[in-house]
């Protein structure tokens, strides 16, 4: 049996419903959205695998319009809300989107509190900078969050 969700509030719906009984969202409006916008909505789907798939597809499409949503997720998914698989998909998608903002987002992600995410961001940033012929910015000897090496 299929489970249907409102793309606005993620309330479970019955098949064939055109207006969400929980939030009043008109589902016919969602049907008219471009595919990339539907995928951006899916970044908050209640099923974690759907969020990851949405991020991966947005990256494959090179969807520049997803960058603000990806930036919000990078800020949102810290501490207790940390989701490695979604953040990995988001970072890989950012690296695939041909937009100068991707370098800024990847640089910001190198300071993520989760070491696995920060390392992945550094690796992806190095790949992007190499492919675009960019010079890496000066990194302090300590390398983390602008802290200089204490032994220098």
Give an overview of the whole structure.
The model is unreliable at 138-152 (pLDDT under 50). The chain has 7 helices and 2 strands. A hairpin with a 6-residue loop joins strand 1 (4-5) and strand 2 (12-13). The protein has 152 residues and is an all-alpha fold. It has helices at 27-31, 35-42, 48-61, 67-76, 84-96, 101-109, 115-132, and strands at 4-5, 12-13.
Distance between the termini: 64 Å
Structural Rg: 18 Å
Helix content: 40-55%
Stretches with pLDDT under 50, minimum 5 residues: 138-152
Which percent range describes the beta-strand content?
Answer: under 5%
Count of DSSP helices? Answer: 7
Sequence of secondary-structure elements: EEHHHHHHH
| Principal-axis shape | elongated
In what order do the strands lie side by side in the largest sheet? 1-2
Q: Main β-sheet, in a few words? A: 2 strands, antiparallel
What multimeric state do the chains show? single chain
- Mean pLDDT level: 87
Structural class: mainly alpha
What's the count of strands? 2
Question: Topology, pairings included?
Answer:
Layout: E1 4-5, E2 12-13, H1 27-31, H2 35-42, H3 48-61, H4 67-76, H5 84-96, H6 101-109, H7 115-132
Antiparallel strand pairs: 1-2
Helix pairs in contact: 2-3, 3-5, 4-5, 5-6, 5-7, 6-7
Task: Describe the structure in brief.
By secondary structure, the chain is mainly α.
């Amino acid at each position: 049996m299929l489970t249907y969700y409102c793309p606005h509030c993620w309330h479970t719906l019955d098949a064939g419903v055109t207006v969400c009984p929980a939030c009043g969202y008109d589902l016919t409006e969602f049907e008219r959205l471009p595919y990339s916008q539907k995928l951006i909505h899916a970044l908050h789907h209640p099923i974690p695998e759907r969020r990851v798939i949405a991020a991966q597809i947005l990256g494959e499409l090179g969807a520049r319009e997803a960058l603000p949503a990806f930036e919000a997720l990078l800020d949102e998914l810290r501490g207790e809300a940390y989701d490695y698989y979604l953040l990995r998909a988001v970072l890989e998608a950012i690296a695939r989107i041909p937009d100068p903002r991707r370098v800024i987002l990847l640089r910001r992600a190198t300071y993520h509190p989760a070491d696995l995410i920060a390392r992945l961001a550094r690796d992806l940033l190095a790949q992007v900078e190499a492919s675009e012929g960019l010079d890496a910015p000066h990194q302090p000897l300590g390398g983390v969050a602008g802290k200089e090496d204490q032994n220098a």
